[in-house]
Amino acid sequence: MLLRSHPELRTRNRGVIEAALKASGYGTYIELPAGKSAAEFTIHKAAFKEVGLTFIRYDSPVTIEVNPSHDILIGFQIRKVSEVALHGEVIENTVSDAGCLIPNQSSWSVRNPSGYQVLMLRVATESLRRKLSALLGVDRVRLDLRQPSSSVDRVIRDASLNFARELDIVDRKFLPSLVANSTEDICNRILTCLSEQYLEAERSPAAPSAVQLGQVEQYIVANYAKPLTVETLTEISGVSARSVFQHFLSRYDCTPHQYLERIRLEMSYIKLLACRDQKSVGFVALDCGFQSVRHFEQAYRKQFGESPVPKLIDRPRRRRR
Prior knowledge:
Oligomer: single chain
Strand order of the largest sheet: 1-3-4-11-6-9
Structural class: alpha+beta
Shape: globular
Order of helices and strands: EHEEEEEEEEEEHHHHHHHHHH
């Protein structure tokens, strides 16, 4: 069960199930088993401005025709199999697949012969267009995304499932940071994996100067607690975000986001020197822009080889001889 902390509906009433599916955008045609439903229908939903996650579970056969959406949808099958019909083509979506992408403004249908559990990722089309323009340094009107299929494309599925799991355990204080970081990560993964314009761009990105790279570096250091978006990289540098990524890798051997995490870890190390108890770890993680204490502790241990639990101030001072 995903999104346990975001329940929306739990019912066996056929009429309520049909109404819930229609309210979720499934409006053209719904085919449920005749008579009273023996299976429980469950919806859990976490909706945010640019992305949203919906987990639906129903252990009875169901066929649904779906109205077009303004947003882009990707369905990740959690159990069993669904058959999605999109533009006359049937796409089999199993638990081992990277997901099934539904472009915005596209009608589609789905048949689940033995029930299903599915995590639906919703991404605002305009957000993806804006980020693609920032990546390429060129305004993009069209957004052509191919179907995810390869093992590389499963990073989108993994990021979405991890976001859903983190939402179940995150401290509410960390929620804005978690949503911002996960939104940026998921959108960038979709564009780098599925955007034909990005993968096959003819124009080579203009190389940023040392001054432009320095401006990005200075911005990251000065704003390490804030989320870092591809739009910000383009705005600060004056060149495409893709170019900034390439030249950060060449010059600093890391991406701008990895550089940001290094700065956050260095700042957290300094802040922890003044801490007296384990409770301070959460405050430092939040203050330095991490999306959760768990993520902070993992990153800190990897960087410094020890737990971030503050203990330096409690060490006994050496006596002078």
